[in-house]
Amino acid sequence: MENGEGEKTGESKLVSQKQQLCRFFSQGRHCNFGKKCRFLHVRDDAKAHEKKTVTTSSQSDVTPSHSEVPGGDVEHRPPPINNSRVAPAAGRRPCRYFISGHCTMEDRCRFWHPPQFPPADNQPVSENYARPAQRMPPVPRPDILQEVKLCDLTEDVTKQLRDKEIKQLKKRFPKDQLIVQERSDGVVTYYRVAVEATDPDWPFDLKEIDIMVSFPDNYPQEIFTLDIPLDQDLPPVMARHVQQASCEWLQAKHATNQLLGKVELLFRPFLRWLDRSLERLFTEGARQLKKDIDLEKAGLQFIPYQELQATVCEKSEDAEEDSSDEGKVEKTDERTVEGVQEAPGCDDGQQQQQEEEEEASRLVENIKISDPRRGTEVKLLGLRFGENTATVVAQQITVCLQCNRCKVTADLTLTGRTTCTAQCEKCSASINAAFRPCMLHHYSDVLGYLDLHNATPADLVLQDCELTVGCLSCSQEGPVQNISYGQTKEFNCEHCHSKLSILADSTRFQYIQPRANKTGPSACAGNYKSIRDPAVQKGKPLPEKGTCKHYKQSHRWLRFPCCGRMYPCDACHDEDQDHPMELATRMICGYCAKEQPYGNGKPCISCGSMMTRGARTSHWEGGLGCRNKAKMGRNDRQKYANTNKTVSRKASSDKK
What pTM was estimated for this model as a whole? Predict the structure, then answer.
């Protein structure tokens, strides 16, 4: 018995010592398990051969009857089979997978692995997986002079930096992308290069842009000049935008280096910035180009204020030269005649110069705004036009005015530039109002200006306003009515049947303070005291925070679609109007006067305040209301529920 047990333990030790090779590592492939793999990873062929010889000798000691195997390969011989019928057939039949290159069963395969084909274990292991990849030491880069402190900057260093920048530019761009031009005097050299976008997801058809740079003699103490040539496929508007943004970046970078006390070669950093920002610059330039095209289609011309002021200054300078020439002529004439007296033409020239400057400033103001901004400005917030909608002009509007004396509101219909006089129903105070319309378009949302006396505007009834819409396709105008807040009004042109649309979210009234005059500033102050701000202003609470005598906990006004007017509640609507009420679709917050879509039990989208009492209930309400017993009303049955329930000592100890 002891000998039998000893033989079993020896066999188990030999079986444990015999370890199969990892087929992935032996074939030169990568093993995902790494060191955790339970199969053998052999690093050298000699070690593998040595291990095989050891295993063959040990197996010959244990099982001497199977030592003679054709081919001399113990690892891939077929296992001993007790069935005599299957053994000879399996031994004669070769493994087709082994012949094709690899057998996944390896030594467990019951078919014959011919000796003329080397097994997978004896295949040479590739060097890529036999040895770990060694990290090469970093190659020391040559000392490239890219930035220098201002204290170390000399003429030789400046010339060296400039030559290095030009050398790097010529080396960076091939000859087909680089054009070198010299000015006629030969002093300045221009380098024109084609910069191509490296973004693989480039959205535009134009993939490159030509830039022209010139380096001054004291570069990099001064930034290089940059121009975008106009003789390329890029539109001029986009080219000017890219040039302006690039010059701004160069100036900002140079100013930063000056503050840090150094100078730097800026051409390569500029190319990196341009490559990163080219898509953004093209997008902004395309938007500006579309804006100009829309203005041209609408028959409008956009003149920047800087250009207008420059033209006026040129006119004033020409006038100054003419006046100075006249003064010189008068002075010479007087000196020749009188000899002693000095010509007073200088004083006349100065006075004439001051008058012309005042006229030029007035001209700038008159051109800047065709109609002076005075009174109460009526602005449509969230105004959006359709694709073919060009302009909108109000012919008649209905305004809800509030009396300054008794605070009673009433509707008043106003037409363009016609003064309307009315009396308050309660206090009989005289109310005067006039409306000066303006043109609405894609870049202006001012409907017009109100001139009011003894009244303040509360609301614009947009549903009762009569507007005239200009079509962009046929340049014809047509009337439109029944426009509601927050709803897109879609209609067709009467002439070309193009689809037009208008959308406005809300209205804002803003009183514009009068400008102080030189003759009488006190008069303007006296008039301003009698004028009050509008009753409804965005950002300020509504009167009584939106409450009424019917609902004291509702801090909002509702805009009813039946008439387009806003009231604190449906009862207030029924008291003031004689038509049947329709459910409100929009509401105005009582804390910030923000108009928004109707939502019950939801906070304001602007200030976050709760406009109704629903969230501040003190009752259980089936678990949807107050769940805090400390804040729950004393009349609620859930407040004292389960307070006298008997709890065992074990349960109370577990809770502790």
Answer: 0.42
